[in-house]
Amino acid sequence: MKNSAKAVVEKMFSAFSSGDIEKFIATVSDDTLWIYHGTHIIPAGSFEKKEGVKTFFTTIMERTEIINFEPQQYIVKGNMVVVIGREHQRVKRSGRELKQKWVQIYTVENNLITKMEEFAASEEVKKAN
Q: What is the DSSP-derived secondary structure letter of residue 26?
């Protein structure tokens, strides 16, 4: 029971990594709120309820190819899980590659994610000529 909040976040990450939208959505509450603070490359956004989170997920999957997604550290305090990680993605339309370092803060209640807030730094991967 002690790490159940972390287990919920890990389950969500597993669904994200496998591209399984149904399992991904099953980890969030009906009234969940996801806030992405944005970067100079990726704009900020706010996503409400399961429908909003579904939009968040499908937009990422439709527009990018995830090359690497790596949660590196978990900090758990009660029902709050802070995850520090990084990712590497390719924009399908342009072929442009981006790397991000991020901190995501999750609130988990009744084994469902009720809130996620992300702070990130993005950079474009420069290709060697």
A: T
What pTM value is reported for the model? Answer: 0.90
CATH 3.40.462.20 fits 4-124, yes or no: no
Burial 71-97 (b: 16+ CB within 10 A, else e): beebebeeeebebebebebbeeeeeeb
Angle at 48 between CA 16 and CA 10, to 5 degrees: 30
Domain residue ranges in the chain: 4-124
Residue 56 has pLDDT above 50, yes or no: yes
How many other β-carbons are positioned within 10 Å of the β-carbon of residue 126?
7
Residue with tokens 């995850």: 83
Check residue 1 and give its pLDDT. 41
The tens digit of pLDDT for each residue in 96-118 reads 999 999 999 999 999 999 999 99
- Residues in the chain, overall count: 129
